[in-house]
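agent> step 3/5: call structure_predict on target 'Type II secretion system protein' (Methylophilus luteus).
agent> reason: downstream docking stage needs a structural representation; sequence fetched in step 2, passing through unchanged.
tool.input:
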Amino acid sequence: MKRGFTLIEMLVVLAILAMLLTIVSPKFMHMLQRSKETTLRHDLLTMRDAIDKFYSDKNRYPEVLEELVERQYLKAIPPDPMTERNDTWVITLPPNIDEQGSVFDVHSGSNQLSGDGTPYAVW
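tool.output (status=ok):
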């Protein structure tokens, strides 16, 4: 007598696995999005702090983000977690036209909406 699984038993196991995956998959995707949002918040905080320190030390704003790396205020420009690239950051110019430099603030280059409905570009 040969031992093994029948086709029906295999189909039942596959159906159970498929059902479990449909339950777990959306939660995983939601957690992945939340982790990207947390990373974005942290990266923005770090870069804004570096811009503020640069301004305090040099009495001007950096011309480009790369200047923060050159002057060792940042180790590297982090990639935007929403676009997964480090060249998509959107730079805000200083509000006062008399200020020297070009990098007053930085925002995400993504046009997506966050979990709370606000655009990442205004964070």
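agent> step 4/5: record observation. The CA atoms of residues 43 and 88 lie 13 Å apart.
agent> proceeding.
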